[in-house]
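Working notes for the structural subgroup meeting. M.R. asked for a predicted model of this chain before we commit to crystallization trials. I am recording the input and output together here so anyone reviewing the notebook later can reproduce the run.

Input as submitted:
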Amino acid sequence: MSSRLLRLVVLYGGVSAEHDVSRVTAAHVLAAADRTKYDLVPIGIAKDGTWLRNDKAIAAITDGTPLPDALEVDGTAVEPLTELRGHADEAITVVLPLLHGPHGEDGTIQGMLELFKLPYVGAGVLSSAVCMDKALAKIVAAQEGIPQCRWVEFRDGVDDPTSITTRAIDELGLPVFVKPANLGSSVGITKAHDEPELDAAINLALRYDNVVIIEEAVTGREIEVAVLGDTAPETSVPGEIKPGSEFYDYEDKYVTGAAELVIPAQVSDAATAEVRELAARTFTAMRCTGMARVDFFYEEPGRGWLLNEVNTIPGFTPGSMYPKLWEASGVAYPDLIDQLVTFALEVHRRRVGFSTEH
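Returned structure, recorded in token form:
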């Protein structure tokens, strides 16, 4: 490929329980990206942390042959700094991290890329870390006056494990949802209907993180809004998820596909305007850049819109809510990738332009 093309390095896989989800996301992004604009370089990160340039996928992209539904994490072992910065004389490099969960969506990769002085798509170090940690995100949302459901935090080694179930039930009632604070894709999430189930759910969540979030079960619709931009973010039409099981779990998202996505969500014009404004407020409060999917519960009648969570690296397959919301709002999948790359370059120019002198 011509060296004049912008070099777009797609990172996928990663050291988290969401490794396989990332492999699917990366395959679809590579298939959709405009090959007349980008020199596409997929790099998989194995669960042991090894970086592997996927030469088979690069050959398929060059030949125009179809990619698999999920990229393998296989190929030539590379050293991150050399691979990412070694082509600076040939082309501009932008990194697109598609690493869901810890060690990818939590600010770690973002910090490394900033140390390498490379532009990258998506939220920065602080925003990524805060949005990944559901407890800290709730604290920020509360400070900003953004409505959300009631919740209790349990920190292993800090809080009393003998009283947490009683305290959670007293404060939140039953049933409740139990989540690892720093994970996504519904991994490790349980709906607990009684105290024994709650105890088991906490122990399951502690397999993935030392901080656990226990939330009240909200009787409401699940509505999501896609956000795109930087200092003046744009919002998509809202979409509704109708789970195929008791709640929108991992199987529903990635295995059975039983959930129904309704786009646009059937809510009033006033409610649509309100949730889009709340999504933009949340995006700004969390200091997001590039992209985020902001998830809400809609409790009607009742408290109205309640923030659920913010995903700074949302699912990006053609069937995922984020690109589908933008498609319904007039932004096609390849154009969405182009806009994200543009924002990455703009944010990078601003970031490296700050003075380091005193």
